Amino acid sequence: MPDRPQRILALDVGDARIGLAGSDETGTLASPMPAVTRTDPGSDVDVIAEAASSINADLILAGLPRSLDGSVGPQARKVQGFVRLLRDAGLTVETWDERFSTVEAARGLQESGAQPSRDRGRLDSAAAAVILQGYLDAARL
Predict the structure, then answer these.
(1) Mean pLDDT value of segment 57-61
(2) What is the pLDDT of residue 115?
(3) CA dihedral 47, 53, 59, 61 (to 10 degrees)
(4) pLDDT > 90 in the chain, percent
(5) Under DSSP, is residue 115 helix (H, G, I), strand (E, B) or coil?
């Protein structure tokens, strides 16, 4: 893993929404941001570019939903396609294994008293924060 940039925008890319999370200035803490509803690929890229700019992120980290055996399945291929669009737009993007991020995010929301099934956008952004926190923690090792 290369030297970590100061600010990172993490994505939990789904078919209906993209969960967002951003790192703090020190690159140690991930915080959820409002999820975005997907419309069309071009608009989705513009929204992500704007979100990255709003927090001065120099890296976008996209969660890659690998299968349990580590292979790249249908949803991961969709994410890889979206990552290509982001890169084609001139954005710096890395992927990070996101297995179990949604499960961990749902557990965390339930422990805080929230009902993740009622607010899917909040769950998606919490999953993006789990993805980003895992990346940040691994970078410190």
Answers:
(1) 96
(2) 58
(3) -30
(4) 58
(5) coil
Q: Please, what is the Cα angle at 93 between 92 and 95, to 5 degrees?
A: 160
Rounded CA separation 90/87 (Å): 5
- Which of 36, 11, 6 has the alpha carbon at shortest distance from 21? 11
Residue given tokens 């993740």 in the structure block: 116
CA angle 17, 21, 22 (to 5 degrees): 145
In the numeric block, which tokens belong to residue 123? Answer: 């769950």
Q: Work out whether strand 59-64 and strand 8-13 pair parallel, antiparallel, or are unpaired.
A: parallel
pLDDT-derived band at 100 (thresholds 50, 70, 90) equals low
- pTM beyond 0.90: the answer is no
